[in-house]
Design goal:
Layout lengths: L9 H8 L4 H14 L7 H12 L4 H14 L2 H11 L8 H17 L4 H13 L5 H15 L10 H10 L3 H13 L1 H8 L2
Helix pairs in contact: 1-2, 2-4, 3-4, 3-5, 4-6, 5-6, 6-8, 7-8, 8-10, 9-10, 9-11, 10-11
């Protein structure tokens, strides 16, 4: 599949994605990741299927579009799916919350208006001391990726970031926080005075 044009099979991939059987659906989503591009014609047809699977009660089914979206996202698809993704930030399963944070980051890159409704909820995930560590790490990654552009926007997060730096126990997360602090000197001063 790698290196070969599969555009002729796009509709067939979409058919497999819509299968009620999970194993076939999973293969279809894998085919979409490998073959769909931003200009793939069937993406408009896939929108309703993605919406349906994102709102599914089954966690494995929800995970499929969440892992596929970052690879196939367009601005029109982002606009259509944003309202379905936001409630997943409060899902009971931490894996769904983590994958949603990453998917929202990719949405924000192609459709910047994503951050208006999503940022308060993402910030709440970061500020929640009881949050799963994998979700917190995903949020830190998103903050770091967004922070190199405008680190001053993240100054209010300094006390929580310092707390994670000291008590986090995750070296990777500590490196990301230190990198974010390095981009803005006033950020470092704020953390040191916390």
């Amino acid at each position: 599949m790698f290196g070969h044009d599969m555009s002729w099979a796009s509709f067939h991939v979409l058919e497999v994605m819509s299968s009620p059987k999970y194993l076939q659906k999973r293969v279809g989503y894998l085919g979409a990741v490998q073959s769909f591009r931003r200009d793939t014609e069937v993406l408009m047809l896939a929108t309703n299927l993605l919406k349906k699977d994102i709102t599914s009660p089954s966690v494995p089914t929800i995970a499929l579009p969440l892992t596929t979206l970052p690879h196939i996202i367009t601005s029109s698809l982002a606009l259509s799916l944003l309202s379905d993704l936001l409630p997943r930030l409060s899902h009971s399963n931490p894996n769904v919350r983590r994958k949603t944070v990453v998917a929202l980051y990719r949405l924000a890159l192609v459709y910047p208006e994503t951050l208006r409704p999503a940022w308060p909820k993402i910030k709440d995930l970061l500020m929640n001391v009881e949050e799963d560590s994998s979700v917190t790490a995903a949020v830190i990654n998103v903050v770091c990726e967004l922070g190199w552009r405008r680190p001053r926007d993240f100054l209010p997060l300094a006390p929580r970031l310092f707390e994670l730096l000291v008590d986090g126990g995750n070296n990777w997360m500590a490196i990301k926080i230190i990198k974010l602090v390095g981009w803005e000197h006033s950020f470092a001063k704020r953390i040191l005075t916390s």
